[in-house]
Write a structure and sequence with these properties.
By secondary structure, the protein is an all-alpha fold. It has five helices and no strands. The chain has a single domain, classed as Nucleotidyltransferases  domain 2 (Four Helix Bundle (Hemerythrin (Met), subunit A)).
Length: 157
Amino acid sequence: MSYPMFKNIAAAIVLSLAIAAPSQAALSPGDKTSIMEVKQETRQLIESVKSYSAEQRDQAIQEIEIAVARLDQRIESLQSRIDNQWDDMTAPAREQARAGLRTLRKQRIELAEWYGNLKGSSAGAWDKIKRGFSRAYSDINKAWEKALNEFDSADNG
């Protein structure tokens, strides 16, 4: 797959999966959120989601939308960094970046599916669905961290 096609597909996926959230939830492009902050944010969201009952679905959805918007911004920021440095990257670094972004896209789709299930789940399925969403959210944040670390080590290596 050519890089421009890859970039267009990635942009289409992010655009099609974007979840509307309040504008204050998005990180500015120059924001350098640390991995430790992201880990803390992920733990807090998962614990918070666990505490919501089916009757509190709207509150849970609101909190999740903000967190997912931040996640999308981090992924977009990583994509931009890769795009900006593409010409200076070695072939192995490019392949590593592609692989990391492929993983992120796959897991972002899975997260969107769990989010959809969460929004439409019955009260009886609520606990199972929110566990699945929490697992998917944790997994994509780990994938983002791995992709970022790999990109940074390739960039500095």
